[in-house]
């Protein structure tokens, strides 16, 4: 069990749509976060956006139409933006310095698009999660391990660019870093491997 519970993890949804890939990630984040005594919010969700099926009955997911600036206008100094361009790496002491950890909901782009810049302009303090691109659920998981479980970034067990076997003839290399589970296997959201296999003919870019 985490020894620093009660954090808030926020994905500011920066896309006009919410596809199946993101839905599986957000469902995974919501459940994992709630299990450690923290909260997960999906913010800046357009009123007209219909939540995909995987998210409709996820009680652990908090959906907000307002953006981070409006919700936490008086707590800006307690918000940490996870930013690949930040100069400082996330560390366990940031669990004392910040209560709210903010992610741009497009971390899984390949190649990466710097759309976290939209949040950077708002002036939040930034931290980075190392040099290798992560999916959004991996970024939240990694942050939680560092600030709640007090484990340094370099001591987390990862795998970079794992391969998913589609069938006996075809494999797909995932262009991201993943946290390993206790059995040494990369942690994917439930249903993600099936989605990747189902859409393998389109490639990863079309899923993101």
TrEMBL record:
<dbReference type="GO" id="GO:0035241">
    <property type="term" value="F:protein-arginine omega-N monomethyltransferase activity"/>
</dbReference>
<dbReference type="InterPro" id="IPR007364">
    <property type="entry name" value="SFM1-like"/>
</dbReference>
<protein>
    <submittedName>
        <fullName>DUF431-domain-containing protein</fullName>
    </submittedName>
</protein>
<dbReference type="Pfam" id="PF04252">
    <property type="entry name" value="SFM1-like"/>
</dbReference>
């Amino acid at each position: 069990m985490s020894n620093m519970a009660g954090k808030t993890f926020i994905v500011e949804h920066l896309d006009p749509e919410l596809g199946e890939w993101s839905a599986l990630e957000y469902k995974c984040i919501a459940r994992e976060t709630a299990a450690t005594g923290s909260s997960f919010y999906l913010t800046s969700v357009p009123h007209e956006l219909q939540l995909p099926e995987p998210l409709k009955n996820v009680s652990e997911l908090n959906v907000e139409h307002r953006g981070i600036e409006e919700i936490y206008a008086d707590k800006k100094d307690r918000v940490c933006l996870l930013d690949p361009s930040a100069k400082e790496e996330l560390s366990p002491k940031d669990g004392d310095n910040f209560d709210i950890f903010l992610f741009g909901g497009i971390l899984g782009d390949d190649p990466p698009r710097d759309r976290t810049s939209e949040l950077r302009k708002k002036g939040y303090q930034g931290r980075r999660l190392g040099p290798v691109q992560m999916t959004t659920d991996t970024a939240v998981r990694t942050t939680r391990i560092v600030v709640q479980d007090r484990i340094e970034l370099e001591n987390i067990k990862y795998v970079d660019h794992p391969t998913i076997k589609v069938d006996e003839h075809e494999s797909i290399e995932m262009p991201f870093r993943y946290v390993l589970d206790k059995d040494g296997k990369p942690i994917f959201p439930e249903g993600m491997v099936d989605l990747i296999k189902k859409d393998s003919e389109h490639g990863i870019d079309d899923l993101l």
